[in-house]
Amino acid sequence: MKTKYLCKIPDDLNIVADKLLNNYPSNRIFAFYGKMGVGKTTLIKAICKNLKVADIVTSPTFSIINEYKTNDNNSIFHFDLYRLKNINEFYDIGYEDYFFSDSYCFIEWPEKIQELLPCNYVKIQINQNETNNDRIIEF
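and the corresponding structure tokens:
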């Protein structure tokens, strides 16, 4: 069953982040789908805040992956696959070490590695309402 949220202001993302983590307490792989600039990184920042990440959360556009530490020293991995040239590059970074680490993995542009996603990943679709700039988030 899909859950849908309408976000009119940035603070609404904190509610969505809380619901997402509470709805999927045992999941660790979260795949974020949506057009460029729709707010994937912004939602990931809200989720990381909820998880008490001590580091500054930024998009790993050029590095492909960022590791963040929580206040209790757990790792969270944030992937931005937009610049990935081919799936072999993802193999080369040793994705299995991240995906099967039991750490949270947040993936932007997961369609580039769709066949490598484990079967229990959570799909988050973010769309922008063209008339009023609201965000519609489904998972």
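(Above: one complete record from the training split.) The longest strand covers residues 122-128.
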